[in-house]
Structure formats: C-alpha cells, structure tokens
Amino acid sequence: MMITDTIWMAEALQLAEQAAAAGEVPVGALLLRDGQVIGRGANAPIAHHDPTAHAEIVALRDAGRQCRNYRLTGSTLYVTLEPCPMCAGALVQARIARVVYGAADPRAGAAGSVFDLLRSSTLNHRAEVVGGVLAEESAALLRHFFRQRRKGRVDQPITAV
Questions:
Q1: What is the Cα–Cα distance from 76 to 81, expressed in whole angstroms?
Q2: Sign of the CA dihedral 37, 12, 107, 46?
Q3: I need a surface site. Which of 54, 123, 156, 158 has the fewest CB within 10 A?
Q4: What does the pLDDT look like over 31-76, one tens digit per residue?
Q5: What are the pLDDT digits (tens) for 103-154?
Q6: CB of 1 within 8 A of CB of 47?
Q7: What's the confidence (pLDDT) of residue 107?
Q8: What pLDDT, in 10s, does the model give residues 83-112?
C-alpha cells in the first residue's frame, strides 16, 4: 500500500458519505489515471432506478465519457467496499490495472473474499488488487448506515468515524 492510496481512499469515502446522505448504501469510487481523477461514482441504484448503478459502474461511466473510450487501461480504481461480481466483471472489461478497496465484502466480494474475478487466470485481463485501505472507516460507515436504516432513520447525515 502506498501513502497516496490512503489519500485517494479518503476521497472515495467522501463520495460514500454523499451516497449515504442520499439514502443509498454508502459506497464511493474514484478512478485515476496518471495521477488525475478521470471518474467519480457514488452508489445510486435507488435514485437512478438502476440495479447496475453501483459506485464502481457510475465511476466507469463517468471516466468513459471523459476519456471518450471504454478501455481505461493504466487506471486505478479506489472503492470503499470490495467490488461485487458485476462490478468486477466491468472492471475487467474496462481493463482497469489496479483496484484498491476499503472494506472486504464477505457475502459478495469478487476481489478475493468470495470470488476472485479480478485476478482470475481464466479471464483475458487481470488487475492488481490491494484490499483493506481505510477498511475500518469504510466498514464503520456501512455499519452506521444499516444501523440507522434498521431504526428507520435513513434521513440523518452519516459521516465516517
């Protein structure tokens, strides 16, 4: 892990907080290439009425528009929660070079927790994976969100601990 990973993950956490404030599961994603942000995303499946509007997909779409290309080679994705199989598949298709995530997802993680799609030798592309960057902060944000949701209070702003 590099010190810059922590800095960029902190920015991804801010995007996750924006998602939480909108009543979405708090996941944020940031896509960089050559030290420049090329895509940002916050979970938005509820707002967009779109089951594919995970933070990673939103960031990929943003980057694709900005770069005018669906191939985002040489880029690094920072995401607060380990990507699910859908997102991992999209990351492989986009040829993302490196994926850095915060909290592991023991139920649906596809970067090594349940599946390992990002490093699978059967696929045509593999990404470097770094997990656990600001993991506790990412997990705390998720725990707080779901605790509030169970209490019926999803309208309160949520901040990282």
A1: 15
A2: negative
A3: 156
A4: 999 999 999 999 999 999 999 999 999 999 999 999 999 999 999 9
A5: 999 999 999 999 999 999 999 999 999 999 999 999 999 999 999 888 875 5
A6: no
A7: 96
A8: 999 999 999 999 999 999 999 999 999 999
In a 10 Å sphere around its CB, with 0-12 CB exposed, 13-18 middle and 19+ buried, how is residue 161 labelled?
Answer: exposed
- Catalytic residue flag (residue 137): no
Contact yes or no for 42/27 (Cβ under 8 A):
yes
Catalytic residue among 17, 24, 56, 137: 56
Q: Is 77 helix (H, G, I), strand (E, B) or coil?
A: strand
Q: Which DSSP string do the residues of 33-46 spell out, in sequence order?
A: ETTEEEEEEE--HH
**pLDDT over 90 for what percent of the chain?**
89
Q: Note whether 33 and 95 are within 8 A (CB).
A: no
pLDDT reported for residue 99: 98
